[in-house]
Amino acid sequence: MKENYKVIIVDDHQLFADGMVRILADEDDFEVIGICNNSTELYHMLNNHKPDLIMLDIQMGGTNGLELCYDLKKTMPQIKVILISMFESINVVNEGKNSGANGYIPKTTDAALVKKSIREVMEGRDIFIKPINPETKVDLEGGSYAFLLSKREREIILYIKKGFTSKATAEELNISQFTVDTHRKNILKKLKLNSLKELISYAYENNL
Amino acid sequence: MKENYKVIIVDDHQLFADGMVRILADEDDFEVIGICNNSTELYHMLNNHKPDLIMLDIQMGGTNGLELCYDLKKTMPQIKVILISMFESINVVNEGKNSGANGYIPKTTDAALVKKSIREVMEGRDIFIKPINPETKVDLEGGSYAFLLSKREREIILYIKKGFTSKATAEELNISQFTVDTHRKNILKKLKLNSLKELISYAYENNL
DNA sequence: ATAAAAATACCTAAAACTTGGTATTGTTAT
DNA sequence: ATAACAATACCAAGTTTTAGGTATTTTTAT
After folding, report:
1. Which residues, 6+ apart, have CB-to-CB distance to A61 below 8 Å?
2. Topology (CATH level 3) of domain B5-141
3. B186 part of contact set with chain A, CB < 8 Å
4. Would you write out chain B's pLDDT as a tens digit for each of its 208 residues?
5. Which CATH architecture has domain A149-205?
6. How many angstroms separate the CA atoms of B80 and B106, rounded?
7. Quick check: pTM over 0.70?
8. Contacts of A37 in chain B (CB under 8 A)
């Protein structure tokens, strides 16, 4: 008889999670024991349930899935983690590896490959997809480069959303106005935006 | 006996589409007759298959789902279209309406709501969710002066949210930059705000 | 018809943002 | 150890916004 792997799905897109449940329900060696929409829900659930595997979306509003994975692996290394993401760039895959995950699956893969990947991981082999075309500049369209942001940069964004000038932000954080300006510049560059106004809209539309 | 609605799912994330198929397979009044990962595949499929409904993701690599919806509705208005998106901002929902779609569902909704929405749409009622942004404080009594805004002022706000300078907005609307500046000033005054940045946040938090 | 509101247009000075740099000090990953 | 990233700080020129106005024309409602 086959193993019965207990799986928790973590994704802020409930619809995607609902779909995943049904995909895994096709097989009788998986059992989804829970769905969480954010890290808080996950930690809550982990108090009462011990999964064998966590399927973790790395872009969730307000939560950085990579950091979450890192924390999970630090305290519960025995739980396997497969990251799910709409990014396929080699950079993100590498960040995924560094966060301690056992696998990385882009959302462009299909149901069959997911099932195969889970079995691979549960049998002890990490699976990190080779980006199909490393030359291709990953064009995210609706996607978000927000995961590229550092902690301080996310903090700066909060002040921008509140309408703080760089001077006011600098005073609040006890750093130089020049530093705030540099952070702002770097944020715009990373997110490929042209102004703070675009940034604010971006922040709201991407739950930053 | 219930209707048997023929559905095509269009999403570049195969995994999401695979999940949707299984969600719809729960019910016997839906039948997924195809999955497409882009507009080309969709048009191909439409040569041989006539669906009752198309579930259309609006963010697909290389394809603008909104434009696709607009084109579809122009040539095949009898086919219902429900847009799916990870955005919940009022902007995008409105753009969805303008593209001729019959409904708009964010990916944060769950399987049950999707099924309900499909039935609503197939029975002739359009469904456009009122997005509830967790950050949004629904506090109409409390001090939203937004009702004071004129039509033109609301229009100006849309350009501000898109990051347009007053000069660029003026060119777009064929009016003087001074006029745009005056509108901006009046908007800030009416809403008791101090900067365009605050205005943008206000706009998102009050579904403007 | 007429008052109120909306939309238009103009002026100026100060403050803030944008852009294109350079550069040092820590920390992290390989 | 050494490359890459994060956080810090600085400079300058040009653009945009902000805040104080005034003022005319068009639309809307009573």
Report:
1. A12, A38, A206, A207, A208, B134
2. Rossmann fold (3.40.50)
3. no
4. 567 899 999 998 899 999 999 999 989 999 999 999 888 899 999 998 999 999 998 877 556 687 788 888 888 889 999 999 876 655 566 667 777 889 888 888 899 999 999 999 999 888 886 544 333 222 223 345 666 788 899 899 999 999 999 999 999 999 999 999 999 999 998 888 999 999 999 888 776 7
5. Orthogonal Bundle (1.10)
6. 17
7. no
8. 108
